[in-house]
Amino acid sequence: MYAAKLNGQITRDRRLVVAVPREIAPGAVQVILLRLSSKPIGRRARRVRAHPAFGVWAKRQDITDSAQFAADLRTRLETRADGNRRD
Fold first, then answer.
1. How far apart are CA 20 and CA 56, in angstroms?
2. I need a surface site. Which of 1, 41, 56, 66 has the fewest CB within 10 A?
3. Which DSSP symbol is given to 14?
4. Percent of the chain at pLDDT above 70?
């Protein structure tokens, strides 16, 4: 198996355009698409965005990295000094 990371474009008529390097021989391939934009797609993404808690930290000036902030909250919860650690 040979793996290569290639950049491409999806055209308006739903075709994938990719420049394939010469070292990749003709034949069958398997393609995994990773969309680069952060624009949510699909029903599940719309459901998540509709949740009342979505964006609750958006206007907080003291939170620059929400993922790190959430991880820190979890760590503080797991190491509480009151002895009520949740496992």
1. 43
2. 1
3. S
4. 87
| DSSP single-letter state for residue 20 | P
**Planar angle of CA 40, 65, 37, nearest 5 degrees:** 25
d(CA 7, CA 5): 7
Distance CA 20, CA 10 (A): 15
Intra-chain end-to-end CA distance of the chain, in Å: 42
Q: How far apart are CA 65 and CA 68, in angstroms?
A: 5
What is the pLDDT averaged over residues 59-79? 86
Percent of the chain at pLDDT > 90 equals 7
User: Does the CA dihedral 52-55-60-63 come out positive or negative?
Assistant: positive
Site of tokens 């979890």: 74
- Rounded Cα distance, 67 and 72, in Å: 9
